[in-house]
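Good morning C.,

I know you're traveling, so I'll keep this short. The sequence:
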Amino acid sequence: MQTTGGYRKHKVRELFNTQGVEAAWVLGRKLGLKQSSLRVWFNQWKREGKASKKAKPATKPAATIQSPSDLGGLSIAMSKSVRIGSNRV
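The tokens, ready to paste straight into the viewer:
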């Protein structure tokens, strides 16, 4: 069998997904992987799993205003005298 780049990582990932962290840890150590590498991979895979569960639902696009009548009688007043912050030192 010819090995390819990432073969050991792929095997550990499959076991991580099917049987969990402990089984994947044991296999990774048997394959000669460093503890630090396994920790980094497991943390990354856990984050990826959480991110896919928290995926945001699709949102409706914002309404576009093409003319003042689209505001439905609302008026927006802008004043030049509005100060943001303070000039005092």
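Safe travels,
E.
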